[in-house]
Amino acid sequence: MKPRAHKFNPKRRILPRARAEALREQLCTLADRVRYGGNAEHKRSPGDFGLSPPALPRVGKSLCDDAGIFKRAEAERLLKTGLASGLVSDRFEGEWPFNVWAVTQDGAPLEAQWEGAGVYHGYPMPEDDPLRPFVLKRWSELQ
Question: Quick one: which of 12, 67, 70, 141 is 20 to 30 A from 57 by CA?
């Protein structure tokens, strides 16, 4: 049986660098307030995420476990870093960007999605995500 192809939101776009730089102060302030909520569908092992109901990955979902993220503190650190560095979407919900991206120390690109009230859940970007190379490129430029 052939694996199901991922469907990606075609509206996702990375905020242009010049605009991210203009919003740097605002994004750093948001990074101080942001929280990682998590989503059980992206966890094989709940670790210390405190998710309820217990973690139950859904077939076809990318798993944080595969990117080596087992601690809420690490997920939140990456979320804050991506936000403060301006690696965010050009779509906002009020003051919050709809998406935030970051890359693990081992080079795994991650995407976080806004849930509401400054809370995000995240997951590794699949290999076939057309936005993946752009996230990796921008991240390397930030380092």
Answer: 12
pLDDT tens digits, one per residue of 19-54? 999 999 999 999 999 998 866 555 555 666 665 555
Of the candidates 9, 5, 19, the residue with the CA atom closest to the CA atom of residue 131: 9
pLDDT at 55 exceeding the cut of 80? no
Edge-first strand order for the sheet with 35-36 is 35-36, 119-124, 109-116, 99-103
3-state secondary structure at position 48? coil
Q: Estimate to the nearest angstrom the gap between the alpha carbon of 142 and the chain centroid.
A: 16
- Give CA–CA dist 100/112, Å, rounded: 5
Mode of pairing for the β-strands spanning 35-36 and 119-124: parallel
Maximum pairwise Cα distance, the chain? 49
CA 14 distance to own-chain centroid = 12
Global confidence as pTM: 0.82
Report the 10 Å Cβ neighbour count for 125.
23
What separation, in Å, do the N-terminal and C-terminal C-alpha atoms of the chain show? 41
